[in-house]
Target: Amino acid ABC transporter permease
Amino acid sequence: MDFFLNRFPAYLDGALITLTVTVLGSALAFVLAMVVGIVGTLRNPAARAVATVYTEAFRGVAALVLLFWFAYAVPQITPYELSPMFAGVLALGLNVGAYGAEVVRAAINAVPRAQTEATIALNMSWGRRMWLVLLPQAWAQMLPTFGNLIIELMKASAIVSLINVADLTDVAGNMRQTTGETVLAYGSAMVMYFAIAQLLIVGMRTLERRANRRLGRAPARGGLRDLLRPPTPGTKVGTAK
Model:
């Protein structure tokens, strides 16, 4: 405990860098996922082909390889040199955005066909149909998987330490070299990663509840809080009400 408390400022700085990379990478991944996912639902074969190429290309390449490419290869083949932070955000955003695009495409396609046909019968434009009918319902289905992808991105952000970004993993490595305490150095980093993950989980669960409430759906159950809650009189544990 003394080890962690004495070095808390350094770990806090690393946690802020990790959180920054996570937020920026998630924002880029979200934009790419929404745009590419929606394009993937269009009837235009060329548009779907573009979406498929992006999705398959960036799902099939490791985020670590993308990171090294942007950090070390791009400056050699172009006159531009990316900052380490930007290279990390770009690599993570492109990689996770490809997974998110499939989530968006699948969620939109999962909306009952009858509702799409009803909007066509009402002579709604494609934009109004997507914005007012399809996306609100698909959004509630996307959020649980989006939450998992954000957590995965946060954990994958540890790779930025390999290009000298002072994130949590980099701080833990420096602490291990300085003090020789491997268990305490990386154990403290694990605590900080866990705390960040819980913060992200709370935020995503809040968005899920709001999305389901707008659609008139009951909030999802099965979390730790519900497991610890005593059963309602007259019902059996493990059965639906």
